[in-house]
Amino acid sequence: QKEVEQNSGPLSVPEGAIASLNCTYSDRGSQSFFWYRQYSGKSPELIMSIYSNGDKEDGRFTAQLNKASQYVSLLIRDSQPSDSATYLCAVKKGGGSYIPTFGRGTSLIVHP
Amino acid sequence: ETGVTQSPTHLIKTRGQQVTLRCSSQSGHNTVSWYQQALGQGPQFIFQYYREEENGRGNFPPRFSGLQFPNYSSELNVNALELDDSALYLCASSPLGTQGSNYGYTFGSGTRLTVV
Q1: Are B59 and B70 in contact (CB under 8 A)?
Q2: B97 to chain A: which residues are within 8 Å by CB?
Q3: Residue of chain B whose Cα is closest to the Cα of A30
Q4: Which residues of B are less than 8 Å from A96 in CB distance?
Q5: Each residue of B66-78: pLDDT tens digit?
Q6: A70 near A28, Cβ under 8 Å?
Q7: Quick one: pLDDT at residue B103?
Q8: DSSP-assigned letters across all residues of B48-59
């Protein structure tokens, strides 16, 4: 089992819809969770971080964390074509580790 | 406030050669991490430097080595290049290297290395 798993996609949604991206992780002691956006040919950009169970909202983005089920998700409301990118989930373990492990990313395509 | 800068942006090397990639961390960030990202894959952790010391290492052979300088800039050196080393090399900085840090990374634009 991989440490951080994401469906590679592509996930295709129409403009204006809600895009839902999911990530599961294997280490139950993981403490910090991050979502990065990576446009084709570019480097990753941090868009959300979450540490506690529940939802965290920032503009059109909502991160959801469920530690009991070991998953973290990212919702993008009112999706725009400019949101088309690969979304990387990164997880920092607990127990003194401070180096995040990345998933392979989910490709999102928002079509007009 | 300057971001993370990497050089060069692109590089073509021959198998067996050596390469040095450079990274300047974001102002106020004292921790630098290096990642390798193959096409279609997520970034793979190579190593991290904090206060000029290697602070963690991923599953990469010893021919991958690095340095951090007093100004927190960093170098990644790869010896005896192999074809599979062709990838995007990402440098990322963060403000703290201590345990329990909840800070995310700021990434540089990356160096695209092609080994032929």
Answers
A1: no
A2: 98
A3: B100
A4: 99-100
A5: 999 999 999 999 9
A6: yes
A7: 76
A8: EEETTEEEEE-S
In single-letter form, the type of residue at position A62 comes to: T
Confirm or reject contact between B97 and chain A (CB < 8 A): yes
Residue pLDDT, tens place only, B78-110: 999 999 999 999 999 987 654 445 678 899 999
* A42 has a chain B CB within 8 A of its CB: yes
Measured between CB atoms, does A13 come within 8 Å of chain B?
no
Q: Which residues of B40-60 are buried (b: 16+ CB within 10 A; e: fewer)?
A: eebbbbbbbbbeeeebeebeb
Question: Among all chains, which residue has been given the structure tokens 């996930």?
Answer: A11
Distance CA A86, CA A75 (A): 14
- Distance (Å) from the C-alpha of residue B1 to the closest C-alpha of chain A? 17
**Residue segments in chain A with a per-residue pLDDT below the cut of 70:** 94-97
Of B40, B24, B41, whose CA–CA distance to B93 is shortest?
A: B24
Per-residue CA distances from B22 to A23, A38, B17, B79, B90 (Å): 32, 21, 17, 15, 10
pLDDT tens for each residue of A9-24 = 899 999 999 999 999 9
Would an 8 Å CB–CB cutoff place B39 in contact with chain A? Answer: no
Convert the pLDDT of each residue in B3-47 to its tens digit. 899 999 999 999 999 999 999 988 888 889 999 999 999 999 999
Q: Is there a contact between B42 and A104 if contact means CB atoms under 8 Å apart?
A: yes
Contact A98 B101 (CB under 8 A): yes
Q: Do B42 and A45 touch (CB under 8 A)?
A: no
